[in-house]
Amino acid sequence: EAEGVLCDIDTVLLLYLTSRTFLDEGGTVARMVQTAMDRRIPIALVAEQEPSRGGCPFAQLLQQTPRVLQQPPYKLYDTLAVPLFPSMEHRRVSLRHILRSMGAVPCDAR
């Protein structure tokens, strides 16, 4: 299948959700996400599914996500996260979905 290319988007924040995403000391990740949302920068959410790579149940992500990002005006999880599955076959499909969520289109669609 054709690979994708980015079109008509200057900036996208790729947020890789793992069991440690919002556990950084000082809350740098949360501030970065909040700033991106304040600036209306699109956010592509990617949820790791492989436990050895930090995958965890979504309920755990919710518990660790700062409340300010879960409530209006931010509501981070109103955007669906693309699950990043462990098997190479599924991971490849996940990566294509991630690229599309970032504005990529198949090369032959231009």
Give an overview of the whole structure.
- Helices cover 33% and strands 18% of the residues.
- The two termini are 14 Å apart.
- With 110 residues, the protein is an alpha/beta fold.
- Helix 1 links the parallel strand 2 and strand 3.
- Strands 2-3-4 form a three-stranded parallel β-sheet. It has a two-stranded antiparallel ribbon with strand order 1-5.
Concise synopsis of the structure shown:
The protein has 110 residues and is α/β, with parallel strands linked by helices. The protein is 33% helix and 18% strand. The strands form 2 sheets. Strands 2-3-4 form a 3-stranded parallel β-sheet.
N-to-C CA distance: 14 Å
Please state the average pLDDT score: 89
Portion of residues within helices: 25-40%
The run of helices and strands is: EEHEHHEHE
Strand proportion, as a percent range, falls in: 15-25%
Q: State the total count of DSSP E strands.
A: 5
Q: Structural class from helices and strands?
A: alpha/beta
What Rg, in angstroms, do the CA atoms define?
15 Å
Low-confidence stretches: none
Tell me about the largest β-sheet.
3 strands, parallel
Number of helices: 4
Strand order of the largest sheet: 2-3-4
Shape: globular
Topology overview:
Layout lengths: L3 E3 L6 E5 L10 H11 L4 E6 L9 H7 L2 H4 L11 E3 L3 H14 L2 E3 L4
Parallel strand pairs: 2-3, 3-4
Antiparallel strand pairs: 1-5
Question: What labels would you give this structure?
Answer:
alpha/beta, two-stranded antiparallel sheet, 18% strand, 110 residues, 4 helices, three-stranded parallel β-sheet
